[in-house]
Automatic annotation (TrEMBL):
Residues 1-16 form the signal peptide. PROSITE patterns: CYTC. It comes from Thauera chlorobenzoica. This is Cytochrome c. InterPro entries: Cyt_c-like_dom (IPR009056), Cyt_c-like_dom_sf (IPR036909). The lineage of its organism: Bacteria, Pseudomonadati, Pseudomonadota, Betaproteobacteria, Rhodocyclales. The keyword Heme applies. Pfam families: Cytochrom_C.
Length: 102
């Protein structure tokens, strides 16, 4: 968690080059994660709030979007979570920060 805070300064300059929202859309993440409304997955607002309450950082979010474990959808079914189509730490960091920065 402290590592996430430490890397903020380092990666800040990268954000200008990565359009996190665009990556999020290209990966169909928005089909399950709306900014404020629950869809098949929790809203970004809800995820960000939980991460704040539980003191989780971008590392945790990146782990989730790259490891693809089973998740329970709001309709009660289970499926493997989508794995983001990038291994570039700058992209992953930008998307994680964009998701949690609300
Ligand atoms: C098929 C629907 C679906 C798609 C597509 C999807 N997600 Fe999710 N996602 C979920 C569900 C459901 C959860 C809640 C998991 C839980 O709470 O157990 C979740 C949770 C998360 C979390 C929070 C993890 C946590 O620990 O609470 C992150 C971060 C996340 N998704 C990122 C992404 C990204 C980035 C993409 C696109 C690459 C994406 N999701 C695409 C359904 C989806």
């Amino acid at each position: 968690m402290s590592a996430a805070i430490g890397s903020l300064c380092l990666s800040a300059s990268a954000f200008a080059q990565v359009d996190a929202e665009e990556v999020f859309k290209e990966n169909d993440c928005h089909k399950c994660h709306h900014a404020t409304k629950a869809k098949k997955g929790p809203s970004l607002e809800k995820i960000a709030a939980r991460f704040k309450t539980e003191n989780l950082g971008t590392d945790e979010a990146i782990k989730h979007m790259t490891s693809g474990g089973k998740v329970k959808l709001t309709d009660g079914t289970e499926e493997d979570h989508k794995i983001i189509d990038s291994k570039d730490p700058q992209v992953l960091n930008a998307v994680a920060k964009w998701m949690l920065d609300r």
